[in-house]
Amino acid sequence: MSARPIIDVSKLPHHGFNTLDPVWWGNNFLLAIETTMFVICIATYYYLRQNFPLWPPPLAQLTAPLNPLPELGVATANTILLVASCIPMIVADLAARRGNRGATKIALLVCLACAAVAVTLRSFEFGAVKFRWDSNAYGSIVWFILGLHMLHLVTLTCETVLLTVWAFVREFDMKHRVDITALAVYWYWVVGIWLLLYGVVYFTPRA
Amino acid sequence: MSEANVQSLNVDDAAPDYEAPEPITSPIVPTEMDLARELEELERTWKRPGGVVGWIIDTDHKAIALRYIVTAFIFFLFGGIEAALMRLQLARPENHFLGPDLYNQIFTVHGTTMMFLFAVPIMTALGIYLVPLMLGTRDVAFPRLNAYGYFVYLIGGILLYVAFLMNTGPDAGWFSYVPLSGPAYSPGKRVDIWAQMITFTEISALCGAIVVIGTVFKMRAPGMSLHRLPLFVWAQLVTSFMIIFAMPAVMLASSFLASDRLVDTHIFNPAEGGDAILYQHMFWFFGHPEVYIIFIPALGFISSIVVTFARRQIVGYTAMVLSLAATAFLGFGLWVHHMFATPLPQMGQSFFTGASMMIAIPSGVQIFCWIATLWSGKLNVKAPLLFVLGFFAIFILGGLTGVMLASVPLDLQIHDTFFVVAHLHYVLIGGSVFPLFGAFYHWFPKWTGRLLNERLGRLNFWLMFIGFNLVFFPMHQLGLHGMPRRVYTYLPETGWGTLNLVASIGALVLATGVLVFIVNVFWSRRAGAVAGPDPWGGDTLEWSIASPPPDFNFFNIPTVQGRYAMWSMTETTPIIRGLSTHKRETLVTSVLDAEPELRFEIPGPSAWPFLLALATAETFIVGIFTPWAFPVGAVLAAAVFTAWFFGDPNYENKTEKDEQRSEAPAPPAGLQPENA
User: Of the candidates A134, B43, B56, B340, which lies 20 to 30 Å from B627 by C-alpha distance?
Assistant: First the structure.
């Protein structure tokens, strides 16, 4: 056996970024699953629209605002915030790659602040829909889409909290630097998929 | 050590454009003593935990996979018992052995068990066991995700059966169509149990898919570029991709159904603008690929068995791989053929008829490739091959009725009759269960170190083959005579009695065949012939190591010089050295060409996956009764994740700290004192 030629790998690194890292792939496939989820949600949204002569349907009670369209204000503010939040995340991403701990910590804190505000704003978006989840099928699917995306916002926030705390109190090691770049991919995905959902939920009724 | 000693890996058939991985440094030739020490260290590092706690925290892919296989097989037996009960009930007209309500529960639980608790998990389980071994690596890419998937699956299965034993078994069919399964027509908790069980099994399947893809992409032995991937692994890979794109549909469908039932949403409620047909679209957008998710891994088993028992290379490797991929793509374009009886535009129906007929092409290509391989090979007719030959006969019949059912006018006539029952069992049992039993006979020696008994194997095969045809062939005729499926009894005047009796007798024969298999397993585990590493002369890397494999799988990560890793292996095939023996390290390689990239530490035993599965269980099971289970579950899961992230004694980023301690992987030969 020892006569067999040998390929010595003892000088290979332990961690690498992007395609080198199995976790990067695992993360991306999880996102592929979630993307499929949202695509099917969107398909459901348009499928259900066929059943309504007016989309959204007229409000059942003739209360003050007669306009059943979802309000744009909070959602648009949130969208702008989310897109802007990519900037500190890009900074954190690049700093983690370079191994710049200070910049990573600050950028992650900014990201966390953005995430907290985004989650708060999202909770007001449900009210802006003007229908409850149990009003009709329109209300149900819109709440579902917003809720599913909110779930991702919350998960993203929790994950960011964990990695930020790690960057502050534990070592700034390669494994967790790679994790931060994977977190960044998740962050971009959450924002990117939101742009699509924002268009569907808020502009389909206006089209 | 000179250049001459280091072999180029590019020795064979595949791809002149393939660059062999360069050796990183000149190696140090280890002595016997080094090897003995390394072996001892590897054994200690990869040692699996014992006892009850060990069962919970173990993450070894072989252990998890065997658990999956045993669990799924037990569910297979449960499903089989339910089938036998139904056959008893239908054996003669106006039988009152089972009442209508119990019958509804039994056929629903039978279908649900066989599809979700048996077929999908056991197919993935064989992949989880064999893929890392065929790729020449030490574990799957995400062992803890793997363990989590198993626990979630187990909990889902227990949920279904506990509910069933409490007379709360789902009773709206394995696809639980609305409005029957909606809040108006199915009050009580029966359908909720079904919907949540779906969630559990789909989470598990998705975890399994990511584990398999991650492993196939990143953990292959150097030299195993994609065009040298064994067909078994290709099949697992294609299946995993199908799972990723199909399973979310059913998870959403069952979530919508559950929320319609539990919190009054109206997605499927036509009175409030919802849509019942939408449910069928969502279900079958998953449900048809599901058939292929069950079937494609079986194609992988068949390829492995055919190559081994024909003792030659496969005919048309590229055609086989392309057929697998084509089947997967077409599989997503067929779902509407389950819905021909709904009011859909005719143009749309024609499209799906075309796609349904087209899928016969890649299946045909593969069958011809196998036949050519067998025809030109030196056949070694043993039990595994028998089951494959049985597959040909049964599956081709099922495929033919499939082409018939793809035609809308015929489908409308025999929709929801026993003809469909016959068709689907021919396809699923012929297409999957027969190859699966072949796979059991083929790989049992690898799992246990002993061969299954050949004579019992033949008896098992013939009983199953004859029994199967006796049960299901008459059902074609019954269907054409108009016997609807899912009725608990029928009148004597219908004239269906004789054929039903034949089918019921067949069920007895089939069950005896399965019993023979179980006897064979128990007998062979104790007294079977000792297998040795490679009882069949197999071509893939799992046959290069002991049976059962050691905890660390490969002492040295191998390299691969051809499509048939074992057959192209020579004295000069290089091996990989330089991985740590102090921690669970394995080699990560590039996606396309499998060039060495990283020494990657794989996480070891851990209780967190189990605790996370418990949090998941709380969420979905208590969720049947109160929506508050969801925030509570979220908090529990967050707590588990936090503890997992910060408090893991086994895998707390030891890598960099260990760097100095074990940087030199093989200290100068012979100078290292015995390890205390």
Answer: B56
State the helix-helix crossing angle for B383-405 and B434-448, rounded to 10 degrees. Answer: 150
Nearest neighbour of A7 by CB, restricted to B21, B272, B642: B21
- Average per-residue pLDDT for chain A: 92
Confirm if B310 and B389 have CB atoms less than 8 A apart: no
Q: Which of A192, A198, A193 is nearest to A75 (CA)?
A: A198
The pLDDT-based confidence of B633 (bands split at 50, 70, 90) is very high
> Cis omega (within 30 of 0) on the bond before B179?
yes
Alpha helices in B22-171, H assignment, sequence order: 32-46, 51-57, 61-90, 100-112, 120-135, 143-165
Q: Which residue has the tokens 């070694």?
A: B380
For the record, the structure tokens of A104 come out as 């990573």
Ramachandran area for residue B451 (φ above 0: left; ψ -120 to 50: alpha; else beta): beta
Q: Does position A188 have pLDDT exceeding 90, yes or no?
A: yes
How far apart, in Å, are the Cα atoms of B546 and each of B48, B130, B564?
A: 17, 14, 19
Q: How many CB pairs under 8 A join A and B?
A: 222
Cα–Cα distance measured from residue B59 to residue B72, given in angstroms and rounded to the nearest whole number: 18
Q: Are B333 and B354 in contact (CB under 8 A)?
A: no
Prediction pTM value: 0.92
Average pLDDT, integer, range B490-494 = 95
Strands A6-8 and B585-589: unpaired
Which residues 541-580 on chain B approach chain A with CB closer than 8 angstroms? 559, 571-579
Q: Confirm if B428 and B449 have CB atoms less than 8 A apart.
A: no
Token duo for residue A193: 């998929």
Q: What's the pLDDT tens digit per position in B237-265?
A: 999 999 999 999 999 999 999 999 999 99
Hey, is the C-beta of B272 within 8 angstroms of any chain A C-beta?
yes
First-last CA distance in chain B: 31
**Which parts of B326-457 are beta strand (E)?**
none
B35: contact with A, CB 8 A cutoff: yes
User: Tokens 């008893």 — which residue?
Assistant: B88
Q: Is A37's CB within 8 Å of B248's CB? A: yes
Confidence class for position B65, pLDDT limits 50, 70, 90: very high
Nearest to B123 by CA among B284, B286, B232: B232
DSSP letter at B165? Answer: H
